[in-house]
Recover the amino acids of this structure.
């Protein structure tokens, strides 16, 4: 029940206690320990997904990295982490490119590229809004 309630530390404590006091059911308690570990993996994975969905890519990358240290091939964590790392690198490159672009229309286009995959990156939304006013044909 501690696993179901998300009290994983308590669940691990109980399985350790059960392992110490039994001779015939050690395998069963080892199975429970594995379930606790799997529940930890799943919580970390869901936490990373939540950060990813919220556009907090750096935090998601940190969670995926922590998960992958414990379970090298958990679900699609490796692919998600690599994709987010690519997003971060691409956003940084495009943002730098936009900052050095003198043509307003080109700058706006570059910033819109960032906004497509990471709308909350730095001040991209504000810049797009401001440049859209400027770039409109009169």
């Amino acid at each position: 029940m501690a696993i179901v309630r998300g009290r994983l530390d308590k669940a691990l404590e109980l399985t350790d206690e059960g392992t110490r006091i039994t001779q015939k059911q050690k395998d069963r308690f080892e199975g429970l320990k594995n379930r606790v570990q799997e529940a930890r993996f799943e919580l970390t994975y869901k936490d990373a997904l939540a950060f990813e969905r919220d556009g907090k890519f750096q935090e998601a990358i940190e969670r995926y990295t922590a998960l992958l240290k414990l379970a090298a091939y958990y679900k699609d964590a490796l692919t998600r982490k690599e994709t987010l790392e690519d997003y971060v690198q691409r956003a940084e490159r495009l943002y730098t490119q936009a900052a050095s672009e003198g043509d307003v229309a080109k700058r706006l286009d570059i910033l819109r590229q960032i906004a497509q995959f990471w709308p909350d990156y730095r001040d991209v939304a504000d810049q797009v809004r401001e440049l859209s006013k400027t770039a409109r044909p009169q």
